[in-house]
Design brief:
The chain has 226 residues and is α+β, with helices and mostly antiparallel strands. It has one domain. Helices cover 46% and strands 13% of the residues. The chain has seven helices and six strands; from the N terminus they run H-E-E-H-H-E-E-E-E-H-H-H-H. It has a four-stranded antiparallel sheet. Helix 1 packs parallel to helix 3, helix 2 runs antiparallel to helix 3 and helix 3 runs antiparallel to helix 4. The relative contact order is 0.14.
């Protein structure tokens, strides 16, 4: 299959994502936190009933709608990747699509099956199917402090830069989109610049270059008969 390596990249993202989630579920308690690299990189076990980076859709059927949307998006991305492979799109662009596809499938697995097999669906979910909560664990509290008390409005309040907790699937999606935005000029160079214009000489129809010449090669204008 042409482009199979790109679908293998997506599969690798899925395997890494699911392995990390199941390991966290197996060896950590919910809300447990483990320092990985000092105080700025930690594992923090959270369940996310909503979208990436903890964003939620507050509605009785919001979770079901979100899961269905994820499944449709997953199919659309897979179709677009296969089509882009056939069109010989740049390899970097195809790798980005593979990362996005792998991340999308990773979170779809959580939403679809975790409510049944890990029993983590919200207590008010009408069915555990399609209501599973996504496991998040990557936490980067890069900067945290309390604002000085003398500052207006925010004085004395706690500040944390980059508070979202996310997972490998979220990271793959984010990086895939980010790299496409950064390198879009090279990925879509043909569409931005358009096909190169042919030389003027190439646009002249065959034989037109001899118009107005004599058989002897004289380039002067032919003499009109009297």
């Amino acid at each position: 299959m042409k482009g199979a390596k790109y679908f293998l990249i997506a599969l690798a993202v899925i395997l890494i994502d699911q392995s990390s989630k199941l390991l966290v579920h197996r060896y950590m308690e919910l809300h447990e936190e483990v320092n990985v690299m000092g105080e700025w990189f930690k594992l923090h076990y959270l369940l996310n009933p909503g979208m990436a980076f903890g964003i939620r859709w507050e509605s009785e059927f919001g979770k079901l709608a979100l899961t269905i949307f994820r499944i449709l998006a997953m199919g659309g991305i897979a179709f677009f990747l296969e089509r882009s492979v056939r069109r010989d799109s740049p390899a970097g662009f195809l790798v980005c699509l593979s990362m996005i596809l792998g991340g999308a499938i990773g979170n779809v697995i959580d939403s679809t099956f975790y409510g049944v097999y890990l029993h983590n669906a919200p207590f008010d979910a009408p069915t555990p199917w399609f209501h599973g909560q996504v496991i998040d664990m990557l936490f980067f509290p890069i900067v945290e402090f309390h604002w000085p008390t003398w500052m207006p409005v925010v004085g004395g309040e706690y500040f944390l830069f980059f508070s979202p907790v996310f997972n490998i699937a979220d990271s793959a999606i984010f990086l895939g989109v980010l790299f496409i935005l950064i390198f879009q000029k090279s990925y879509f160079k043909h569409h931005i610049e358009g096909p190169s214009s042919p030389d003027t000489a190439d646009e002249i129809a065959p034989g037109m270059e001899t118009l107005g010449t004599t058989e002897t090669g004289d380039n002067s204008s032919p003499t009109m008969p009297s």
